[in-house]
Every structure is written in structure tokens, then in C-alpha cells.
Amino acid sequence: MRGYKKPTVSIIGASGYSGAELSGMIARHPSVKLENLYAYSQAGNKVSDIYPALNLDMTYRAYEGVPESDICFLALPHGEALKLVPELLDNGKMVIDLSGDFRLKNPAEHLTYYKQEKPADAWMTYAMPELFHDEISQAKAASNPGCYATSIILGLAPVCRPPMSCGTVTSVSCSALSGLSGAGRSAKTELSFSEMNNNIRAYKVGMHQHTPEILQALGTSATSPSFGFAFTPMIAPLTRGIYTVLNISLEKQLPVSEIKEHYRQFYRSAPFVRICSNPPEVLHVAHTNFCDIHVTQSAQDGSLIVITAIDNLVKGAAGQAVQNMNIMLGYDETLGIM
């Protein structure tokens, strides 16, 4: 289009796994222009030296203040975005944050689960497109959901949000396996090949930081939950992917065919959610923005079993962030992703 100027993008925290995934997606996006890549630890290094596969002729820069770009993505460790976002918003930037800094409305829950204090107003639109599309379309600042949270919320939302209410669910037991990239790029002995090959390890059992985020998005809270919720996260010897199994007890036993149809209708306008006849596989969603969901029922007690699979770096991070950017800019939400 003659005279059209593409919105420009800066990525702050671009050298981590999520930041690198995002860099590649923005560089390929047809309707925005990648302008700056900021990275504290890699400042001065060429992107091609750190991530040759990205094929980007750019150099990481040190962050020295508000960039000229129209849109700023932040892919920083928890706590860092809190320091930068207020100034970005004051300067009229569109902001999409991939950390947990702005996800929780309740500062007390944030302190409990993130071990950090934050101001009461440090909250931004919780940007899960399948649930909050209209709110995202009006937002100038968006908080991208966590990876585990995405896989779990999408599996639970049809039975926890209207037209079915949380009162229908009495308890949820959730186990989720994550690929090693979910822990970030920093070297850790316990995540090395020799420690994790042929191994699975549970961690943060009963106290994972995505728990209050999940319950908040489902219309309840970790402080006063309306149904029992037990979450066991685990690390598996995968590079990428999250595989989640949800065992859901309902007040009223419903035919599984009715529940499956409800899931299909709930996600009928969601281009990146696929309701599958068979249990999903991580390989089927790797390097995509899809969430695959399978719904079935226990033959013993009729309880609901929902299985989901996503790529933690795409639908669980960078892909969902680009999806949110598209919605905020009024583009088709699949642009540059599908």
C-alpha cells in the first residue's frame, strides 16, 4: 500500500530462547519491521554468531532508554519488566510483556508465588486470545500468558468459564511435562544432558508460579479457589513442548459426546486450537502456535480427562505474543504465524 509505514518493533531481552523465537517470527512478519534487538549479556555480539539459524544480519544492543520503535516486546527475567514498562507506556509505546510481572491482579499472590513485591496497579490486560480477544483488541499493554498456564487454561476453560460455570467443576488434578527450554538459556547443572537424558523430574510441586495465573483466568483465585486444584509440573528430556493431562471431577456427570461438542463450539472461532479425536503429541505441535486438545472420560468413574499439547516457545511464549500483537494492531490474528 502506497504511503503505508510498517509499525516498528524492538525486542528487549532478545537473546534468550523465547526472545530468539520472537526475533525470528517478527523478522518474517509481513506487516511490521524489526528494528532493535536488546540483550544485556550479548550486547555487541552478532545475532548470527549466537543463533545462526535465525539468519539475521543484526547485532544485539545494550538497552539505554526508550527506543524509537512503535512496539516493544519484553522477554526478560521476572522482575525486570516492572522497572522498564512504566517509562515505555509513558512514551506511548505499545507493550507486550512475556514475563510474569504483570499477569496477577493481586499483589499478595504475586509476592507469595514470585517472591517479589509489586505495586497494586502493576497489571496489564491478560492476553490469552481465545478468552479475552475483545479486551486485547482495545489494549495498548498486554501481559502474555505463561507456558504451563496456556496449556492448562485452554484445557480447562470450556468447563470452567461460561456457558458452563466453575460450579460444575469440583476438583482438578493436573500433571504437565515441559521441555528443557522452558527453564531458559542459562546454564544449570541439573538441566544438562547428562542429568536429564532418560530422566523426568518434578519441581515446584504445589507451588508453581503459574497456579494463581491459571485460577485467575478461570474466574477464581489461588487465595480463595472455587474448586480443588493440584498442579504437578515436571521437566522432561525434550527441547521444546508441554504435554498436560487434566483429570477433572464434575458435580454432574455428563456424556462425553456432549462435552466434546461443547469444546468444539467453545473454540469454534479460535484458529490455533484443534480438538483432536486422538491424544495429541508434542511432535504434532512443535514449531507451531497450535494447542491440540483431546477430551475423553474415565471408564471407572466417569471423570473427565483432557489432554493438551503445545510448543512452549511458540504458543507458550513468542507465537502467542505475535498473535496478541496482531490483535492489538487490528490485523488478522494468524498473520505471520500460520
Automatic annotation (TrEMBL):
Please list the GO terms describing molecular function.
Answer: N-acetyl-gamma-glutamyl-phosphate reductase activity
Entry keyword set: Amino-acid biosynthesis, Arginine biosynthesis, Cytoplasm, NADP, Oxidoreductase
Q: Where is the active site?
A: 147
Where it mainly occurs, coarsely classed, is cytoplasm
Q: What is its EC number?
A: 1.2.1.38
Enzyme class, broadest EC rank: oxidoreductase
Checking PROSITE patterns in the record gives: ARGC (PS01224)
The cellular location(s) given in this protein's UniProt record come to: Cytoplasm
- According to its UniProt record, which reaction does this protein catalyse? N-acetyl-L-glutamate 5-semialdehyde + phosphate + NADP(+) = N-acetyl-L-glutamyl 5-phosphate + NADPH + H(+)
Functional pathway: Amino-acid biosynthesis; L-arginine biosynthesis; N(2)-acetyl-L-ornithine from L-glutamate: step 3/4
Record-annotated membrane-spanning stretches: none
Alphabetized SMART domains for the sequence = Semialdhyde_dh (SM00859)
**Does Cytoplasm count among this protein's keywords?**
yes
Against Pfam families, the record matches this protein to: Semialdhyde_dh, Semialdhyde_dhC_1
Q: Which SUPFAM superfamilies match?
A: Glyceraldehyde-3-phosphate dehydrogenase-like, C-terminal domain (SSF55347), NAD(P)-binding Rossmann-fold domains (SSF51735)
Q: What positions does the domain Semialdehyde dehydrogenase NAD-binding occupy?
A: 8-139
The entry's family comment says:
Belongs to the NAGSA dehydrogenase family. Type 1 subfamily.
- What is this protein's function per UniProt? Catalyzes the NADPH-dependent reduction of N-acetyl-5-glutamyl phosphate to yield N-acetyl-L-glutamate 5-semialdehyde.
Official protein name in the record: N-acetyl-gamma-glutamyl-phosphate reductase
- What organism, scientifically named, is this protein from? Prosthecochloris ethylica
